[in-house]
Model the fold of this input.
Amino acid sequence: MIEDNSLRLSDAQAITATAPSTHVIDLGQRGGSMARDIGIGSAVPLSVRVVQSFNNLTSLTVAVQTSPDNISWTTIASGRAVPLAELVAGHQFAVPASFPEGTRARYVRLHYTVAGTAPTSGAVSAVVVADRQTAG
Done:
């Protein structure tokens, strides 16, 4: 799988509480006749995977958020709550599999929501990729 560090949202980010991704992608200033909608046309795939197994929590949910100003954030897509039993190293979140159509704001990040007791171990990596790698 080809990964570009400038499109990385989390790099083995320890998730010990509900929190945003460590990095934000700046899609740039709009200008002239250029419209921004990274979800239109071909899908823009995301690889969001567990790189260190979790403990303690009940579940973890991953959401895509956008912002016009990098201050106020809106959730535009959210995956299912993944239970602890599935949160082992190598698990790839099924959703979000790509940025949704309508991603028009300047800034994009992920948001991780922890349910249950705060974990003391567990980490996630997330990056925009050319294509999602699947087992098989």
Summary: The chain has a mean pLDDT of 85. The CA atoms of residues 18 and 113 lie 4 Å apart. Strands lie at 3-14, 19-20, 25-26, 46-52, 57-67, 74-78, 82-83, 107-116, 123-129. The domain at 3-28+37-129 is CATH 2.60.120.1110 (Jelly Rolls).
